[in-house]
Amino acid sequence: MDTSEDILHQASPDLVRGSETARRSKAARLSPSFISWLQAGPMMLVFLAFFLIPLVFVVIVSFWDYNEYQLLPAFSGRGYTDTFEGCIAQLPDLCTIGKTYLMTLKLCFMVWAITLFIGFWVAYFLAFHVKSKTWQMGLSLLCTIPFWTSNVIRMIAWIPLLGRNGLVNSGLVKTGLINHPLEWLLFSEFSVVLALVHLFTFFMVVPIFNSMVRIDKSLIEAAYDAGATGFQTLVNVIIPLAKPGIVIGSIFVITIVMGDFITIGVMGGQQIAAAGKIIETRVNALQFPAAAANAVILLAITFLIITMMSRIVDIKKEL
Amino acid sequence: MTETTGTKGVSRRTLLKGTAGLAGLAAGSGAITGFPYVKSADAKVLRYLGTAVNEGDDISKQCLKDTGIKIEYITATTDDVTKRVMTQPNSFDVLDTEYFSLKKLVPSGNILALDAKKIKEFDNITPVFTKGETPGGKKIGNQGTAPWKVLYLEGKDSKTFSKTATEFVTLIPTVYNADTLGIRPDLIKRPISSWSELLNPEFKGKASILNIPSIGIMDAAMVVEATGKYKYADKGNMTKEEIDLTMKVMTEAKKAGQFRAFWKDFNESVNLMASGETVIQSMWSPAVTKVRSMGIPCTFQPLKEGYRSWASGFCVSKGVSGAKLEWAYEFVNWFLSGYAGAYLNRQGYYSAVLSTAKAHMEPYEWAYWMEGKPAEKDIKAPDGSLLEKAGAVRDGGSYEDRMGGVACWNAVMDENDYMVRKWNEFIAA
């Protein structure tokens, strides 16, 4: 506001002085809240056009009916009832959707726990052990190097390494550690988790590192001075202060893994169920309402997880 | 003041008149025809939507040379091709797709049938499509969406398939093949003769099938029938009970760890086989050739229960009319005139018009690919790379033997929706 008035004064001082009333009314119109809206406007429009409106369409279509070749715009809960088919009848066995989400959540939890562990210590090292800013910067950039190649290539690169006759297996057989190649190295939950951790640990490192470098070093010194051990400082000072970073990183990793079907497909040999995979199969069979219903369910569950996480830490307050 | 305005007005009007007159003159004299956009409209361009099977660069280059039609390929997977026809029918001119998608495409009204009378070689199209038998007279299995069931429409804009021949052809046939299991003879070390071997515990953790539900379940049905567990009335159109039964057999095998992985695209199937992750799996002919060209033994194993076949052909988008429609006919006629057919035959596929393709192939090539005779000379791929050394015989033998041995065709079932849900259950099991 100040800036715009200054500019006005500089540009035509006479005009401004001459029409005091006009200036006042203008100032009243350009209230601070209006300007904040104006600043947030472009992002809001993009958000509206490319996220909210399509999302509304997805929800609407999820309640439509369909046949082999077209959408039938009449209300139908078929997309949902089909999805939960057998969930009560098959008890105590899990139905398809139950099994699928159990598997998705299991993979999600494993990947989250491992990326958090690795990400936390990488960030810790960068923030507290690397003293010079230049080195911090240099090493952070080093972490981004794998991102110069595409996701798909980084994922596929594991296959010749982990295969039955791959590098790891032939190495182990040659050294005599094992007699037969390990089958579970590839096309298994292990390979899926490995690839996902490899792909997404960096999304944990960045926000945690960001939180950690903003921790006032004198707080840590104070903890030592007060006689805290290294472990006590970590638990009582560093982790609480790095929480926003941890939560943001977790949201990144969890939302990506919940919706992933490509990595799970390729590394799991297409034999492991994933919430995203169900959507893909439905879309490929031109069953768009059923796919939309599954997308809404996935969104609801992911949203639930994120809400629970933001209960633990109020991100808005911490930022 | 008034005067000035007046003068101004007049002068402006005069100016406008003058310009309009000039423009009119220019248009009348034809001076404007030199504009670039008019010229580009003269170039014959067809947007060609299809899978990668027929979309060779050599084919489009030769077509431009022979007919002046420039082909712009839009390549997608079979599923995506269908999706695109449904959702963006104006984004392509010529469509190259499989017969089994017709059950979805024709009712949508987004494609136009072609007129058989305008296809020069239509009467020379192999009887595989028109009569359901080989040129030698062998009856071909008609389970699934066999092409002759969906080849004709009752009328120009009809959405009903005609049982008898009409002039309205849904898809002008282009390419087809008979698929079976690919095996690694060096790792299996014994003869394989039945689909049931796919679920043989001997190959536990070393088998694979296709992860395209509508095709995967057909391979599964071939296996179930081969084991003697059940005999289907029509593998390509199962009842709900039959789907349950088929998926139950497959689910048990999956839980027992029979499958190493499922594959979805050409390269995945090649990699699984070449790396030795699998030794027996459903496969496509050129994928077997690719593995072999890497120096790894791989056989496209003929099996006693027969082959699962597929076929594709051309139609046009409903938005195509006038000159563009004529170019489409010109292109389809060119495609059947031999060059493209020979090209496809040399990849291990089959061309729709055999006589014209034969004229474009060397006699020794024809003998190897189509007659199942030992190769007199080295067999080369269309790009010139070596496929087989002299003396080799094609897996499965001659055209008569391979196409004559077809048991069923790729299909979309009436219970497709149920089948897709069961497939997801199978993956989750």
Protein architecture, described:
The complex is a heterodimer of chains A (319) and B (429). Chain A has 319 residues and is mainly alpha-helical. Chain A has 17 helices and 2 strands. Chain A has a two-stranded antiparallel ribbon. In chain A, strand 1 and strand 2 form a beta hairpin. In chain A, helix 11 crosses helix 13 and helix 15 packs antiparallel against helix 16. Chain A is globular, with a radius of gyration of 27 Å. The two termini of chain A are 25 Å apart. The relative contact order of chain A is 0.11. Chain B is of the alpha/beta class and 429 residues long. Chain B contains 17 helices and 18 strands. In chain B, the strands form 4 sheets. In chain B, strands 1, 2, 3, 4, 6, 10, 11, 12, 13, 14, 15 and 18 form a 12-stranded mixed β-sheet that branches. The longest helix of chain B is centred in the first third of the chain and has 28 residues. The relative contact order of chain B is 0.15. The chains are: A mainly alpha (319), B alpha/beta (429). Chains A and B meet through helix 6 and helix 15 of A and helix 4, helix 5 and helix 17 of B.
List the helices and strands and how they pair.
The complex is a heterodimer of chains A (319) and B (429).
Chain A (H helix, E strand, L loop, with lengths): L1 H10 L1 H6 L1 H10 L2 H31 L1 E3 L4 E5 L2 H6 L12 H34 L3 H12 L6 H6 L1 H5 L4 H8 L14 H25 L3 H9 L4 H30 L2 H6 L7 H10 L3 H25 L2 H4 L1
Antiparallel strand pairs in A: 1-2
Helix pairs in contact in A: 4-16, 6-11, 6-13, 11-13, 12-13, 13-16, 15-16
Chain B lengths: L1 H28 L6 H7 L1 E7 L6 H11 L1 E7 L2 H10 L6 E5 L3 H7 L2 E2 L1 E2 L11 H4 L12 E2 L7 E2 L7 E2 L5 E2 L2 E12 L1 H4 L18 E2 L4 H14 L13 H16 L10 H9 L5 E4 L1 H9 L5 E3 L5 E11 L4 H14 L3 H7 L4 E2 L2 H6 L3 H7 L9 E2 L5 E3 L10 H6 L1 E4 L6 H13 L1
